[in-house]
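ingest -> validate -> predict -> emit
validate: passed (alphabet ok, no gaps, 395 aa)
predict: started
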Amino acid sequence: MSAAPGALAAYRPALRPRVLLSDPLLDGAATVHLIKDAETGSSFKVGPKEHFLIARMDGERSLAEIGEEYAGEYGRRLGDAHWKRLLGLLGAKGLLAGAQGATPGAPGVLPGSAAAARAGAVASPGAPAVPPVPPGPEKRTLLRGSLPLVADADATTARLHRAVRFLLAPAVLAPLLALTLAMEAVVLVRAGELVLAVRGLLANPVLLTGTAVLLWVSTALHELAHGVVARHHGGRVSEIGLRWRLPAVIMYCTVDDYLYFGTRRHRIATAAAGAVMNLIFLLPFCALWLFAPLDDATHEAFAALLLLGSVQALVMLVPLPPLDGYRIASQLAGATGLAASTGVYLRLALRRSPEAAGYPRRARIAYPAYAGATALVLACALAAAVAGVHHLLTA
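emit:
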């Protein structure tokens, strides 16, 4: 970029098509945006001013036009040295059309940005919620590993989406959600009966095995639901497979780019899809348990499945990492690294540190709200567990 000022002002930079920009996110006391190269998986953090400039690099606007917008927004004009530095950094990372590709690596902060100055040019722990593609396949051993099941996970998810997308239409989804709420009300009212059914199930190895298989199928559908809903909102699924940490073997579905969906509602829907699928999966078994003429053993097994499946779904909504509930909470708060940032802020606030007062108002509301909501959810879960054990022991 050694061009004369006039030529530099006329330059029309464009980001590569697979470069994605996130909404503004709280990151501790700062506000950042994530930039992700969807081809390499590299993810970087930048501040609002850098995002303002980068988001306008569409190949249509010249640097002079972008500079005028920047001056109108921030009250200062950028010189050629600033533009050369920014364009050089973007080019080095392979984010500009025509630039060399970036080398995949750990998520970081775009060097030279305001976010880099705040973070010391190192990503804060757990910062980008979408991790980069790992540099190589996971080493598989007898005790742990993963195994992709399909060659093209995105194409497989696309076929699944075409087959079941009618379920995502409001006219279908709303009644299903209403039925799941009614089902959970029944579970709550008849919880004592269901707890005893679980105890009875433990004494029947055949029905216990069948129930375990159904719960495993529910977890597989949970993962695929994330992928289908992500695809519905324009996302991409990079891998579908099996992961084992013996004795546990589960299916996984890796969803790329959900942080970059156009609306927060779509991001929350993708995060919540798995738990919702778990509950919808239980609806036919609930109907059979309530209304079908079953023998006692099968009736008891369905009752146990209903309780265990409900617990399985609701546990996933607990707002602690790495559960789906944490992703939902992070979207509601508009934050990355929500748990870590909350811990830091609360420690500062409890010590009455002046640093706590320096947090933006949005952060001063979001972090205590997350801590309070998490404590309430955990207290309710503990109370439910204690009540269930007490009923099991005294009935």
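The CA atoms of residues 33 and 117 lie 15 Å apart.
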